[in-house]
Amino acid sequence: MTTVHSPLRLYGRSGELAILDTLSARLRNGDGGALVLTALPGIGRTALLDGAVAAHRERAVGPVLTATAAPVEQRLPHSGLHALLCSAPGPLPLPPDQVLRDGIGPADLLTLLRELGADRPLMVCVDDAHLWDAESRAALGFAARRLGAGSRVAVVLGAGDGAGFAGLPALRLGPLDDDAAAALLDRLTGAAGAADHPVDPVVRGELLREAAGNPRLLTGLAGRLTPDQLAGRTALPSPLPGGEDVLDAHAARLGGLPPDTRTLLLLAAAAEEHEPQGAGADAALLLRAATAAGLGPAALDLALLTPAGTAGALQRAGNRVHFSHPLLRRAILHRATPQRRRAVHGLLATLLATGTAGLRGRVRPGGATTATGPPALAALVQRAGAAAGLDAALADALEAAAVSPRPHAERAAALARAAMLSTDEGLRADRFAAAAEHTRLAGDAGRARALLARAGGRPPHGGAHRVRGLLALRDGPAADAREELLTAAALLAPHDPRRTLDALLGAAEAAWAMGDALAYLDAMARITVPVPERALAQYRDGMCAMLRGRVTEGHALLRHCLDSAGRARDPAAMLRAGVAALVLGDIDAACRSGARALAAVRVTGPDSLLPQALEHLAYAELRAGRHARARAHALEGLCAARRTGQPNTAAHLHAVLALAASVEGGTQPCAAHADAALAGAGPHGLAQAATLATWALARADLAAGRPGEAAARLGPLVRPGPRRGHFAARMLAVPCFVEASVLAGRTDRGGGVGPVADAVAEFAVWVTYTTDPAAPAQLARCRALLAPPGEAAGRYEEALAHHDRTGGDFERARTQLLYGAWLRRRRRTREAREPLRDALVAFERCGARAWADRAGGELRAAGEAVEGAAAGRADPLCALTPQQQRIARCVAEGATNREVALRLSVSTRTVDHHLRNVFAALGVRSRTELATMLGRRSG
Question: What are the average pLDDT values for consecutive 10-residue runs of the chain, which has 939 residues?
């Protein structure tokens, strides 16, 4: 067993603690009140009550009366109040023994509590108050409802539910969120920042999943594992031990229900066995099972039609029946004897098998057919639950039935059951690996890893390596994913060409994410098996030709791939077509392929592909200049990536959002998304995400008028060296690099030789073999920026002519902005106004606020008044709060922080805090820049 460190603080309860602190503060100020904390067992109700009592005692502001209900005394009148009054620190006007003997009326209890709080604030805390005797509950509830202003008495009750204390303020405690549960687990296992206490990520995920946000259950589970089990060196037991007391407490809540109702709950718990997680049970099947078990119609109506019939344990939604909390289902199955569980599963299996012929072809809620053919998969899963031991024949039947069109989640559950019933070790490993694959496709990466761990690693298993590599591709170092998938391909090649191909495509994708062109070519070159799809062969050969510099051949092959993919039904093939379109520069085709892939994934799945479909579409829309659409799809993709456990995809989506924000959102949103992308890209070697995020930051710098910072960011990406950007993305950043370098005065010194000229020359070569519609205009703009005065105007006009042919409001507006600014600096202010005015209107139409501000400033400098939204933003102080404006003006006048503090009657720390925010909001780095911006000079 592992030594579990007791938590030093409550996790994930800041809101609840704030409410209790407010009640305590009111009590110290002389005003009483009441609060009922309700929660399921193990959620942390007792810990909150103990914390409230400890805080009151530490402040030494007044007495405390505390009690915890004893269920064995529930039938003893006034026993609860007797226990409460016995906790008093001194003599009472009414002896507790007299209360137990003669009782006490509600009004007398109210008077007694007010007397006890007359001199000093009194806190009353009762845990498990729902288990008190009825007389004590009624009296205390009566008194608590009448405490308020001036009473100097606060009553805090803990209860399983608030039914016995109607009319009192109640706070329902929910399970811990993911972050809080993870922090608690770190504390329990000593893993927070401790390298000598490693917890295997798979074990960690399994513990958090099993605990379902219940802190006491998590504590019990972690405490029963050995250090080797926590570190992943030894297989986890199944089921995990340590949660028995919590499950018993949940089951005990239902112990007082009639026998028929308890039987119905067991049937409902067992009926969920063959359903996808969270789908609940089929009400029709449950009704048939209950009737077959001998339950009467009256009991069924009461239980299924009214929540009170099952004490709130079951909830009906249409023709589905759900447990109000997943631990209730587990508790009911835990409490039942093995023989009774097997009998219930056997009953359900019989009903499902006999109903197969009549149900075949019908569609049940959720879209899946009820049967795959005789025998039904659901019946087989129930038969597996009824099995007393290993059963090779049943395992074979389960594997044979777990086929399309069954949803991946159902197939995964069936295959996991088949693995547990298998007598052959090799078959068991195969089935666990297959279950992990379908679980991954269903979007549950954590569960897939847990199933892989049960598959074992000896001897090496190609299927397990493949799934492990595909999981690492979405949540792990890309280099590790590549090696895992290459290993899987080598193991699978002799007997499974299809999965070998998938592994090699995954290895190529990992190499692409790493920015390693040679590794990408190596993985693609290994695809020597017969390729069943012609489009895939064209994709392979076309991508390799492009990366090897055979541009004409690559273009032809990828164009054929796009034409063939137009008839594809496979979402993965559609995504590959989108990649081919982007490499070609056919942005419209990339958007079409991305939209088709997204639609196909939404209809047919798999769920694991949804984040990639949204990422590909968002990136294509970004390249097309449809920034608002790109942002919407990227935000949806981010939610999907988090839900399905794909942080690598989330990093790419953050990069897309950063690029969108560099146009629309301003510096702060761009920085937030870029930081998130870089935080994920760095540890996992995601060069593409890092390149896009850095480009986004530089573009936001340009919008904010900080070309020097932009040039510093982009220089390493576009120049040769170890920090060079991703081979497929760095050319896209060259126009920004050239603009930033010119505006910052970092252009090459004569002769057309240097980093900027080299970047433009390489960009010109790239323009010759891409069909990206924006590229020719961007090249002409770059040449205009570097051209001598006599040629620049012609270059700008050339760029605008290209824009007229291809569209793209944002890029055209950027060219107009630079052209107008160039004209103004050449003292051609009248000519400058038209392109600057057009740029301002276009930026506002695109929602590019920061860029519109920049255009508006140039237009005002050209002597034209700016109206509308840009004018409202013309005053740099309009983005600041009134206090920040006052501080900014004082600093611009030359006042020190101390002088500002004295002038405004605030602390120097407050001035420091506001001044940092002023610098960030205005994009300045010094007092001198601030004074210049505001039109004053500091002395």
Answer: 53 88 88 88 89 87 89 88 86 81 86 86 90 89 85 88 79 88 87 58 86 89 87 80 84 80 88 82 86 77 67 80 85 88 91 61 37 64 89 91 86 91 89 92 89 77 89 94 94 90 95 94 85 81 92 92 80 92 92 94 92 95 90 93 92 95 85 93 94 94 87 89 87 92 76 78 90 90 91 91 87 92 86 89 86 85 66 57 74 79 68 82 78 57
Helix axes 829-846, 809-825, angle to 10 degrees: 160
Element (DSSP H or E) covering residue 395: helix 392-401
Angle at 741 between CA 736 and CA 813, to 5 degrees: 40
Q: Rounded to 5 degrees, what are φ and ψ at 935?
A: 85, 15
Confirm if 39 and 172 have CB atoms less than 8 A apart: yes
Mode of pairing for the β-strands spanning 33-38 and 281-282: unpaired
Pairing of strands 33-38, 170-172: parallel
Phi and psi for 171 in degrees, rounded to 5? -125, 115
Write down the residue that tokens 């001036």 correspond to.
150
Helix, strand, or coil (residue 7): coil
Nearest to 286 by CA among 306, 300, 275, 305: 300
Closest CA to 38 of 113, 125, 129: 129
CA distances from 328 to 252, 335, 341 (A): 10, 10, 15
What is residue 156's three-state secondary structure? Answer: strand
Write out the two tokens for 921: 């909001």
Residue closest to 378 by CA, chosen among 405, 403, 400, 356: 356
Contacts with 317 (C-beta within 8 Å, 6 or more apart), sequence order: 280
State the pLDDT at residue 850: 85
DSSP, collapsed to helix, strand or coil, labels residue 369 as strand
β-sheet with 33-38: strand ranges across = 64-68, 122-127, 153-159, 33-38, 170-172
Query: Residue 277 corresponds to which tokens in the numbers above?
Result: 């997680």
Residues for the chain: how many in total? 939
Quickly tell me which residue has 């009825």 as its tokens: 134
Alpha-carbon distance of 522 to 535, in angstroms, equals 20
CB 644 within 8 A of CB 443: yes
Residues 634 and 659: beta-carbon distance below 8 Å: no
Strands 64-68 and 122-127: parallel
